[in-house]
Specification:
cell projection; metal-binding; single chain; mainly alpha; 208 residues; 0% strand
Amino acid sequence: MNFSIEQYSKFMTLLDMLLHNLQTLHMSLEDSIKWLGEVMAEIGPNHSQKSEDFHVFEVKEANAIIDYLKISLFQHYRLYEFLFYSTREEIVIGTEQTIEVVKPADYPFPAPLEEGISLDTYSTFIEPLPTPDMEQKVLDQEQGTQEALLESEMREEDPLGGFTIDDVKSALERVTDEVLISMQKEISEKLQVQEEAFNARIEKLKKA
């Protein structure tokens, strides 16, 4: 059906009234069909003042509307009743999000990237002048850094830096002598043990 704008408006009004009867007045399916029949019965050339709002439809158009309501609202009437009357649990689904806020463009933090400018311009016009406390803090940090560097350099010095060549030679000779004496003593003990073993064997052979 090709309805006019006014007919579409009246049709939507009729549909809204049917849903209102269902949701608010709790009309049953039989009552809704009866109410629709009473409204549509007044459509025609001899319409009464009661259905003045719907006299824009002809009988053929009214029959088309009834056929549409049969296969839509009335066919699924129980579903609409369940939709309007049944209580349902409300499931609230939420997510927690952590939003990191950009730190303020205050010393020593730089401005956000989209607001970035050249270092020369920042140093000349924007960078705040250091306060005495800040200067003292910077000096303390520099002094601490220098002391740490000196300590690390002292630790990395050559461990033999305080000895002369003669001292190193004498130390090596002393260590070598101690090692050689220990080896000679060990060899002498082993030879003595072997000599005693040979002498014992010779004595056994003589007695035999």
